[in-house]
Amino acid sequence: MPLPVVDYLKIPENGDPYLEGHKCSSCGSIFLGERTVCSNCTARDTMEPITLSNKGKLYSYSITFRSFPGIDVPYISAIVDLDGGGTVKGNLIECDPDPDKIEFDMPVEVVFDDALGRKDAEGNSYISYFFKPTS
Q: Quick one: DSSP state of residue 97?
């Protein structure tokens, strides 16, 4: 079984991968990563885990032309506002890295795939999430 690249990517034994957020029961704010205090209203012990939507809209992006050895460029680093709440950073795939072909607020979906062939010391592969434009 592949390993998740981040702790908020959940891979159930008998189910599809998903992104997990935490929602404040006091103010309704949604965040990635576990926490005991809401960063919005500062309520304590009000955070509940939720499954984030696999659909959203492109909020911002950057086209990267220069990176570390072994990382193919150019690639599109994106920030996406997910439907129902939550904001996530990841790579936009299956889209030309051309500003004329990328629209703010364009609909995207979260897809899960191999994390660029990376493996740990025991040879286990990793799974990551990416954003893909939808029509």
A: S
